[in-house]
Amino acid sequence: LKKLDQAIEHKRKVAYWYEREFRNSSVQVPKVGSWGQHTWNQYVVKLPHRSRIFLALEKASVQCGIQYPQGLHRQPAFKDYYTNLPNTDILASECLSLPMHAYLSEQNVNQIARFVLWQFSDGK
Fold this sequence. Notes:
It contains four helices and two strands. The protein has a two-stranded antiparallel ribbon. It has helices at residues 4-22, 50-59, 86-94, 106-118; strands at residues 43-46, 95-98.
């Protein structure tokens, strides 16, 4: 706990580095309102071709994750409560958690972000 504030502050820098790298791209980054702060336990982006990029990152040994592969309305326990939630289906197919922790360097973030952006290039 003695290093918690320092760790959170570093993760805020990591989030800024990601945001900077993805600026002007197809990758939608999380937004934080001017009224609050984020502790960045995850850094979840929304991007087309999520499955392909996820597999490419895994193959390159970059730890990433898909926390919610399907919406609640697709879970058997909730099938009687929800029917069609198209926006939820879209988000579930496009959200990807990129590496986020207090030990990432700016160079690490730049490499990860550029790899993700490279996956959008022609021929991929």
